[in-house]
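Design a sequence for this backbone.
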């Protein structure tokens, strides 16, 4: 009986204050959480080799230490993936990043596409921006990836030592200049010789990731696999 009343209560609350899917913004039903069942199945996936063939990825595969570049979802303006990333970054919903990390990791495992690695490293935010937001969205994604893969993650291997303006709206050249020499390795001895998965939210020009990549290589990483939740359409 208690369970029945609890169920009725949740149904009543959902009727008055409907829980909405962070992707499509429609009301969710039953036990659906964060992203509705329909969107989980139909969010636009990146074709398995399309990122690797892109011009952006070409800059990474030129590094012999980079073992691969993988993105999960296709980012389009005003689309469902943008809704998810906006909720993650600007609406105080790190749980969106954790879930997306889990979803990406699960699909990689099912397709035998999960790379062998010793550590997952997230792209850091400057301390000022992290305090403004309350968290680093890339940490949330890394946490989700780690939970499914069992690979430990760390948000403290890299630090952003210079505050910069958002990359949004900048040209490719401006993005590269904006992130030049802004990262450093905090614990290089813990990175040396390690196989690392480097995680960020979106792959656009790759400028931020390349800046982090160079720091990790100077710190002595054995190899690096790059992963992002989304990739901008090329």
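Sequence:
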């Amino acid at each position: 009986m208690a369970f029945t009343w609890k169920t009725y209560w949740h149904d009543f609350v959902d009727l008055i204050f409907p829980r909405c899917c962070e992707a499509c913004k429609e009301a969710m039903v039953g036990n659906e959480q964060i992203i509705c069942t329909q969107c989980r199945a139909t969010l636009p996936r990146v074709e398995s080799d399309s990122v690797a063939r892109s011009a952006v990825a070409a800059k990474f595969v030129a590094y012999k230490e980079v073992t691969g570049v993988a993105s999960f979802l296709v980012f389009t303006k005003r689309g469902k993936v943008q809704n998810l990333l906006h909720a993650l970054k600007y609406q105080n919903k790190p749980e969106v990043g954790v879930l997306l990390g889990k979803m990406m990791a699960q699909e990689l495992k099912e397709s035998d596409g999960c790379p062998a690695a010793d550590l997952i490293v997230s792209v850091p935010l400057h301390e000022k921006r992290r305090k403004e937001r309350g968290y680093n969205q890339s940490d949330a994604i890394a946490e989700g990836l780690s939970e499914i893969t069992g690979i430990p993650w760390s948000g403290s291997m890299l630090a952003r030592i210079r505050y910069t303006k958002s990359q949004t709206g900048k040209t490719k050249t401006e993005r590269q200049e904006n992130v030049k020499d802004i990262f450093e390795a905090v614990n290089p001895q813990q990175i040396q010789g390690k196989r690392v998965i480097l995680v960020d939210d979106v792959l656009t020009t790759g400028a931020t990731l390349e800046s982090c990549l160079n720091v990790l290589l100077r710190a002595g990483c054995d190899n690096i696999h790059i992963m992002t939740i989304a990739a901008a359409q090329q």
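The chain has a mean pLDDT of 88.
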